[in-house]
Amino acid sequence: MSGAVSARGGGFAALVRLARPHQWVKNGFVLVGLLFGHAWHQPDTVRVVALVFAAFCLAASGVYVFNDLRDRAADRVHPRKRHRPLASGTVSPGVAAGYAAALVAAGLVLGWSASPAAGLIVAAYVALNVAYTLGLKHVPILDVFIIAAGFMLRILAGTVGVGIPPSQWLLVCGLMVTVFLGFAKRRAELMVLTDAGGEHRPVLDDYTPALLDNMIAISAAGVIVSYSLYTVSPDTVRLHGTDQLLLTLPFVLYGIFRYIFLLHRRGGGGDPAWDLLHDPQLIVAVLGWLGTTFWLLSGPP
């Protein structure tokens, strides 16, 4: 009864906030198979990919609720996370536990309805993130690779899970981007928390600003080099029927450099989804890349 009263006190808006719907933009990785597999004109494939996208939205929200439930005490020392519904006491732990279970279950059912392969990938995503929350997030380097693995599973769900063969280039570029975002996230947390970093997230005691800056620089270079090579690869030209994908490289460069700027000069980097949805220059870079890529892939330039 007390849990229900807490939920009513927080209201529907608190439950929505707890699910972090702005994070659903990350599930855009599910859609890259449609784009680079030239499958956007196949209604059945689009429908199945849409189901997988929705499945990841529900499952990811369930994972976020579970994470907030486990971390509510640590979140109270974070200047931003202390306002989250569980950390602030707006939603009770009992209600949050039931809410997380319902979201994950709905995501698994929806993923399985898209295809058994997609359902298994969604299940792997949930299992990986539960392991992350229960302890693997305290292992330096591995913690970032698990974050990256979550994005890679989204790519696989939108390709292998719906019968679209993923290219090796797609997987390499996706891995480099997500590792870059993961190290940038840790750097942002270190900048915000300063001396209290280990109290909020123990693994931050194993990182230093110089170490993370080096890792960010290496992974950013990996993104740029791998994507550049992808655009001029003979296999890419043959697959997509165009040798003009190099035109999309400036958008990638600008997006990477803008993100590093936001990290060091505007307090960004801690929440990639929030930055993407609120920074006009990042929005233009992503939309410019997406529009130019679709134009080039949809027909001869």
What would you say this structure looks like, in words?
This protein has 14 helices and no strands. It is mostly helical. It is globular, with a radius of gyration of 20 Å. It folds into two domains: 1-166, Orthogonal Bundle (Tetracycline Repressor, domain 2); 167-301. α3 runs parallel beside α6 (116-134), α7 packs across α8 and α10 (209-232) runs antiparallel to α12. The chain is 73% helix and 0% strand. The chain has helices at 2-19, 32-36, 43-75, 85-88, 93-114, 116-134, 142-157, 168-193, 197-200, 209-232, 234-240, 249-265, 272-278, 280-297.
Question: What is the strand and helix layout of this fold?
Answer:
Layout: H1 2-19, H2 32-36, H3 43-75, H4 85-88, H5 93-114, H6 116-134, H7 142-157, H8 168-193, H9 197-200, H10 209-232, H11 234-240, H12 249-265, H13 272-278, H14 280-297
Helix pairs in contact: 1-5, 3-5, 3-6, 5-6, 6-7, 7-8, 8-10, 10-12, 12-14, 13-14
Number of strands: 0
Can you tell me the number of structural domains? 2
Structural class: mainly alpha
Superfamily at the CATH H level of the largest domain? UbiA prenyltransferase
CATH architecture of the largest domain: Orthogonal Bundle
CATH topology of the largest domain: Tetracycline Repressor, domain 2
**Average of the residue pLDDT scores:** 90
- Provide a count of the helices: 14
Distance between the termini: 63 Å
Output the keywords:
2 domains, disordered N terminus, 301 residues, Tetracycline Repressor, domain 2, globular, mainly alpha
